[in-house]
Write the structure tokens for this entry.
Amino acid sequence: MAEDALARLCDAASKVSAHYLVEEDGTVHMLVDEKECAWHAGVSFWRGQRNVNPISIGIEIANPGHEWGYRAFPETQMKAVAVLGAAIVQRYKIAPRDVVGHSDIAPSRKEDPGELFNWQWLARQGVGLWPGKRGRGAEKGRALKPGDAGDAVLKMQSDLAEYGYEVPHNGSFDEATHKAVIAFQRHFHPSDIRGTWDEACEAALAGLLVMR
């Protein structure tokens, strides 16, 4: 699996590359110099920036993926990601909220690293952000789902956009909004990635917004 990923990332014809590849056993391969642009993000958006390739460091984390036997990331691999990520964050003074996954920057196309990636643990190592206990939260029992519309949906869209996601601002829980919600859940609410926006999601996002 890692050999296939490495071959693809090193093949110019694939038009895909990353600065680093981290294998499941913790081995780290540097594939592109950090001073150079890698093609890891593709069509992407984060905090108003389109095409994040020129302003980011891409780390590919070996895993079969959702279509080929997706599984949890081994502790050894996570520790290697944490060490590598911490060094990059310190080197470039990267804000915690700007440590994101492919699904965050391209929710309509990407699912990785996915709901089994331990973002909470990684944030405790100083790489990324995880919501604290603060935040206003939604009214208990209230939930928004695809097809809904109105001020509550518009508020959800505005808050997601404020954090960094590309999401419509139309008050309609449409397909693009649904994919952005699932991307948020994969990162910050991995126990439920159905795309229904409930009080737990709203409280998590509110906590993130007060921490940034």
About this structure: Residues 5-14 have pLDDT under 50 and may be disordered. Residues 75-92 form the longest helix (18 residues). The CA atoms of residues 3 and 133 lie 41 Å apart.
